[in-house]
Amino acid sequence: MKQTLLLIASLALGTPAIAADTIKIGLGVPMTGDYAPYAEWQGARCMAEMINSEGGVNGMKIEVLTQDSGADTQTAISLAQKFLDEGVVMLGTIPFSDTMIPVAQIAQGYGVSIFQPQSTQVEMHAGIVNNFFTGVSPDPFTATAAANYALEQGVKNVVLLTSDEGGSWSARTPLWFGDVIEAGGGKVLTKLNFSFGTSDWSPQIAEMKALGQTVDAVYISSIMPDIAVLIRQLRSAGIDAWVVGSDGFDDPSLDAVASDDASILDKVFFATLAPSHADSAVVKFMADCKAMGIDVPGLFPALGADTVKAVAWAVGQSGSTDAAVIADTIRNADSVPVLTVDEISFKSTRTYAQRTIPVIGYKNGQRVLISNEIPSNVPSDWN
Fold first, then answer.
1. pTM of the entire structure?
2. Which of 82, 165, 191, 236 is the most exposed place for a label (fewest CB within 10 A)?
């Protein structure tokens, strides 16, 4: 009778009555297509296996449910519903606000939150949903860190490449970079539009040349292979400006651009989400996963380890597998241990992790960590 009453109560609350013999995390994320390099599922699976091999959490195994959303919002929503019906305690989805918001709204009825380890879009911190975490800092922080280093290199005149296709990440991040440059005495010469998937940058390059002024830096927040094509075409056109970017540059395929000519990346740097240079925790984790037979091909896939480690810690800390308790434990903690940095905290920010912003450059074709600080001069117009 008691079990029947519990079942009825569970159904009335919209949560599945599933015995908590496993801790389930659902990732309906891009496993194929253009956004696949930026999804977190491989790192999540590897971290789950690491924790399970040591006995799990309070005797329970972690199960990471994964399915390919592609880049389709409706598919991601359907997968989120499927995972919620299977009793997940945390969700991950396509890391763009037009998907994260409706997924969070559906999950809210189940008391479940989204933990996006790589989402930097400011839209998610506007109070539209309150069951959302991102394990990193928003785009204005990365834009500021990149601009600060550019100013240290003597950059004065910059060109900004913007696109509405990636939301604020590709549209407003360049503008925040420009704001910091101008606050530091530099100048935004022009803003030029681009589309994802551009293979011919000659129109934008022609406009840069027509400015009649030396371009010290070109800033773009985009994805590979577009970035590599832009770098090659700028150099072929004789433009030796710094090419500066955001976390979209943090893809191993960018490193491969230097395979024939290491110098081509000498004047490229980007502000990213976690240290990903040779001796970083991320690179060590990737090697450890490879030894286990799991390929974790870069920073973004590795970030999934942060989701799993945070959830596992919260279950252990609270002694509960209730999704709402897990989320509250994470949100109210002074520090939450993760993989990509030692710890993060949401206590003062509520929705995003305040953490240092690594700036990565290249020397002889190899990544080097240039700086890793929390910038103090972030533009204030984003929240």
1. 0.88
2. 236
